[in-house]
Amino acid sequence: MLGLAGVIVIVGPDMLHSLGADVAAQLACLGAALSYAFAAVFGRRFAAMRVSPIQTAVGQTAAASLLLVPAMFVIDRPWMLPMPSSATIGALIGIAVLSTALAYILYFRILASAGATNLLTVTFLIPISAIVLGFAFLRETPRLRHLVGLACIGCGLVAIDGRAWRALSATRGNTG
């Protein structure tokens, strides 16, 4: 609840002003979050079936590609587009290898070793990364609400991890 509260504090009351304005986009965001949760729960089955994380990542990426290729031909009509530059092709390869293939391998490896609950806590790092990267590369200035939200997210992650609570309990047990 602390992590969720942190995300709400970071987003702030501004989000309520446009709530319902772009319903399709808002539903897509909710659908993506729901899909992410289902993927972790469903992905546990692969570990139980002794399917390696690499096999799972390859299977998921291949299946997604097969499903998206027909849509790409209908929507994008690539034969009508100009040939992409070498920089664009390089960026596409980088995204495919690092941000997709490697990310899925890590995702399923962590899922197999740490479990779905621990894996899904990584989603709380997304707003932290966005704020840090915005500050570092886009010269954005964090507001007080961002720092308070980051603190809430950090406390939530510490609470979920449990090691701090166990250490505190052990210390109290030794002194009393």
Plain-language structure description:
- This protein is mostly helical and 176 residues long.
- The protein has one domain (2-12, 20-175).
- 80% of the residues lie in helices and 0% in strands.
- The chain has nine helices and no strands.
- The chain has helices at 2-11, 14-17, 23-48, 53-75, 86-114, 116-120, 125-137, 144-161, 163-175.
Write the layout of secondary structure elements.
Layout: H1 2-11, H2 14-17, H3 23-48, H4 53-75, H5 86-114, H6 116-120, H7 125-137, H8 144-161, H9 163-175
Helix pairs in contact: 1-8, 4-5
Question: Concise description?
Answer:
The chain has 176 residues and is mainly α. Helix content is 80%, strand content 0%. It is built from nine helices and no strands.
Ends distance: 31 Å
Order of helices and strands: HHHHHHHHH
Rg from Cα: 21 Å
The residue ranges in which pLDDT falls below 50 over 5 or more consecutive positions are none
Mean pLDDT: 83
What class, by secondary structure content?
mainly alpha
Q: What keywords describe this structure?
A:
176 residues; 9 helices
